[in-house]
Amino acid sequence: MSHKIIMTGPLFIATLLFYSTVSYAEQQETTPKNIDNLILGEWEAHVSGTDCYERRNFRGDGVLYSHASEQVLTSKYNIASTPSPSGFYTLEEHILTDNGGNDCLGMQMPDMSDYTFHLVFSSSGNELLMCLEEKYDSCIGPYIRVLNSGSQK
Asked: pTM here?
């Protein structure tokens, strides 16, 4: 007699999230990368549960353009040149302009204008996670590299 186990609901989602972040963590390279070449360019992430994408364009002059649904932001950013011992690069973002539009979840940007994220890159350098803490369970993404724009320096 054969038994099938079917996971549904929150348990399935939690299990899927756990295995995807563990898999992503296993792909990480332990040697530091040249962050100037690694971060530059356009990155895109699908917002789960929607047909919406968030796009972030990191330029070599320290300007970051973000677009998600109706929301358009311009920011200045600074990223640490070396990763922390746990492999995360600290990104500080200061929002300069916000058009007041809603993001992919239908929310407007809060009044805060300064943010800190912790980034971790895949070993290929073509995927990244943006995390609120240096923990994989606080991450959004993956963001996939759309354009390696070294010419935007």
From this structure: 0.73
**3-state SS record for 47-114:** CCCCCCEEEEEECCCCEEEEEECCEEEEEEEEECCCCCCCCCEEEEEEEEEECCCCCCCCCCCCCCCE
Catalogue the long-range contacts made by 45-50 (C-beta closer than 8 Å, 24 or more residues apart).
Answer: 45/140, 45/141, 45/142, 45/143, 45/144, 47/104, 47/105, 50/104, 50/105
CA distance 133 to 117: 7
Low-confidence ranges of the chain (pLDDT < 50): 2-32, 149-153
pLDDT of 147: 60
Distances in Å between the Cα of 35 and the Cα atoms of 57, 92, 102, 130 are: 15, 14, 31, 15
Q: Decide: 129 and 141 in contact? Cβ < 8 Å.
A: yes
pLDDT in the model for residue 67: 96
**One-letter amino acid identity for 68?**
A
